[in-house]
Design goal:
The structure is a single chain. By secondary structure, the chain is mainly β. It is built from one helix and ten strands; from the N terminus they run H-E-E-E-E-E-E-E-E-E-E.
Length: 156
């Protein structure tokens, strides 16, 4: 009886470790930065510095957005500029992010604050490459309320 109890606890422990590590498998960089919910000014860029990559390869980039109930539109357009160092290779992307459906319901999960992840691009990086990423909105309104956080995730 005692042996089976410890065996059961062992398997539960192994399963918990697998579940916890599987959630973040392959993520080499993930960071969010706060945006003033009263209003994100059109010319204010949110900047991220990705440390040098330890393993060369192909990486997927995602942009994360967190909004609250004060966001007045159904979508947001983002301008993302990236520079890879030491090559100084630059990329510029425009990302149209649909946040609210036609009935006015948030498409992302949450209550009061909603989380969204959008695939941006796939980038080939060499060992030792680092990146500087800047994000700004490209909406007609100069001050955009209701966006709480902007983030990027880089995964293998």
């Amino acid at each position: 009886m005692r042996k089976s109890k410890y065996t059961l606890l062992y398997y539960i422990g192994v399963c918990m470790v697998l579940v916890l590590t599987a959630c973040h498998a392959g993520i080499i960089y993930s960071q969010y930065k706060h945006v003033p919910t009263a209003g994100w000014e059109k010319n204010d860029e949110v900047s991220f510095s990705v440390d040098p990559i330890k393993v060369a390869g192909t990486y997927d980039e995602e942009i994360g957005i967190r909004i609250n109930n004060n966001y007045p539109f159904t979508a947001v357009t983002l301008i993302i500029n990236q520079t890879v160092f030491p090559s100084y290779e630059t990329f510029s992307d425009t990302l149209e992010c649909s946040l609210i459906d036609d009935e006015g319901n948030a498409k992302g999960p949450g209550i009061g604050h909603y989380q969204y992840n959008f695939h941006l691009t796939t980038v080939e990086l060499q060992k030792g490459d680092s990146m500087q990423v800047t994000i700004r909105h490209d909406m007609k309104r100069e001050i955009l309320p209701g966006i709480a956080d902007i983030g990027i995730t880089l995964k293998k």
